Amino acid sequence: MKNIIIATSLTLISSVSLLAQAGSSFEALDTDGNGAISLSESKALPKLMAQFKDLDTDANGELSKSEYEKFSG
């Protein structure tokens, strides 16, 4: 049973990571659904996190959909 739980957890974690990388959709990255991507949420996609400061043009600590659209990942 313990092995099944571990395998299921690893599969779920891998799936979420792949979804964020493959889809890279704003909605998938905005995990709390507040209409913006926080620095914490951007960690799911390392390339986005690396560009976060440059993309956050209004310096409010979040990426709006229009700011995210400038992401080159």
UniProtKB/TrEMBL annotation:
Coiled-coil intervals: none
Location of the EF-hand domain: 43-73
Signal peptide annotation: 1-22
Statement: the UniProt record of this protein carries the keyword DNA damage: no
MF (Gene Ontology): calcium ion binding
InterPro entries: EF-hand-dom_pair, EF_Hand_1_Ca_BS, EF_hand_dom
Keyword Signal listed: yes
Keywords associated with the record: Signal
Name of the protein described by the UniProt record: Calmodulin
Naturally occurring in which organism (per UniProt): Pseudoalteromonas byunsanensis
